[in-house]
Here is the input.
Amino acid sequence: MDSAHSSAVMLVSNFVFPNDLHVHWSMMIVLYPYITGLVDGAFIIAALYYLFDIKSLRPVARFSLLFALAFLCCATLPLLLHLGRPERNLNMLLTPSPSSAMAGFGYIYAVSMGVLTFIVLFVYRPDLVELRATSKGLRHLIYRTLTFDSIDLSPSALELDRKIIRFLVGIGIPIAVVLHGYVGFIFGGVKANPTWSTPLMPVIFLFSACVSGISAIILAYIVIRKFKGRSIDHGCIKTCIKILTLFFIMAFAFEMLEVFSHSYLKSGYHHMVEGLLNGPLAASFWLWQVKICSVIPLLLLGAMGFFHMERYLYNFLAAIVSAILLLQVLIMRWNVVIGGQLMSKSARGYTEFHPEWLGKEGILSVILVMAIPFIILFVLGRIFPLWTPDNETNDHK
Amino acid sequence: MINRRSFIKNVLNGTIAGSLYLVWPMGGSSLEIPEQIPGIQGKDYDILHQEFAFIVDITQCIGCGSCCVADKREYHVPDGHYRTWVERYVKGFSDEIYVDCPNGGLDGYQHPRTDIDEKTRDTFFVPKLCNMCKEAPCVQVCPVGATFKSPDGFVLVDEKRCVGCAYCIQACPYSVRFINPHTRVVEKCTWCYQRVRKGLLPACVQVCPTGARKFGSMKDETSEVYEILKGPGVLTVLRKEMGTFPALYYKGARREVI
Here is the structure.
């Protein structure tokens, strides 16, 4: 507080509006943008391979698609758990209010799901046709359904597949951008909350989505391959890390830009936002999100980019950086979603949030919701082979 | 001497006659509703040509909490949630502002604050309720159209349609909304729409002992709200910078009121 005048309207008696004591959007709404972000980032990896022909991503391209699909299947779960009346969820599709940003979710989600499913089916078609020929019983029926009863693998059919895949991935990119940019806009469009209400919000969400998705692919690829005792394609990891570095620099720059804009412009509620970041969010924002989970990965990524390293060390650091960045994005979502609500609209005080263990929005539910995509991925991996000798590494080309 | 048979007969007859009296059409409503808002009772309610205003006169509020009690009783508002509340502002000579609102002001402000060290320059109470914005953010953001604006200017919630997503709670700059833990849908002040449609004042207005809460039709040129809004007195709205254009006006609100 610089002067008595400014203190007259700000922050003196920690007064919270009576209805603001409760944090209405809690951990499930932290998970929702986190999950859609993972989907987006994973899809970007696939798009870079299938549309932009970055060939070194071949070992993770198909895996990214399945990873994205597994998580997209669960993107609505946290929302359903959050709704007061989840049984009315179809109202979003049946009686949408066109003026609401949120009303678009069902449609954007459905289109994303459709496009991603078709991309997976076309990408896997040659494998599915082969598996159909060698399988029996229920598996045969599944593969027959997934190939739409077509066994045509002639060069012209495969060329048509390739064109369709490029087209689908081409429209998939704007859809993925809309899906996650829109999630950012849900927050950015709330003018009553000064920490959310910024046009930068969709941009920040998009870049951090790419960071989380690419990190997840790197980490999952390394862990699964190690677990299975298979080789890790170094060229692929290197490309992924370079892309991750680019997206993370952008994400972190925009996150910081937003904070510095607030503190430099000193307009409206900057005292409240400042007080929030230096008060209730001091540990989760400055310490965890910025210092531990952003500065350290930046230094590591810099070292990986500038210095020559042994492959095993590079891969090890890649896994570590990815894990930290996955945490960074989760903490960032926490700080935006829950942190933003700690500030009462009275502009005179902050409320508190204590996560509960049980309950439909509790910590156990969070763990369950985050475990389900991996179960789906496991099941998908039984139907769609994650790696075949053909795409295992770039050396097999 | 009455025997047992005729006694039972008489009792039965009396019971039947009494019941008939209760159900017999008496040629008029047995419940006389007093007319508190002129021009509504006994007429067709032209929903397209109505306009109402609510004025809170801060200089008259004594912080008794009657309005909060009336509201809680009218709607069985769950504890810890508030459709309306009364804040107490204390302004010190250093320009510091101390605001509190224990239990939403339900118990009335019976004792002065003792935790303020400096000399008090001014103190006042600020009742809060739905602002019935003309450009309501809650209506805009509701994904299913459960929160809507009626043609006569009331922002209402269809509790059978609401999904309980709480987006409107985030969007409301005045924090007048909450999720009712029993119905699991959103709830807020309606300016007692069901009463207004019967020509009755909102419950909080009716019980206010000092007339700090005023409500009336802008179509009635004799109404108090019309007179005040037409007159030269300074009226303000809350959070004007939000561009919500509230139909709730404040008279005598200091600039510190948010």
The helical segments of chain B are 4-23, 66-75, 137-141, 167-171, 193-196, 203-207, 224-230. The mean pLDDT of chain B is 93. The longest strand of chain B covers residues 120-128.
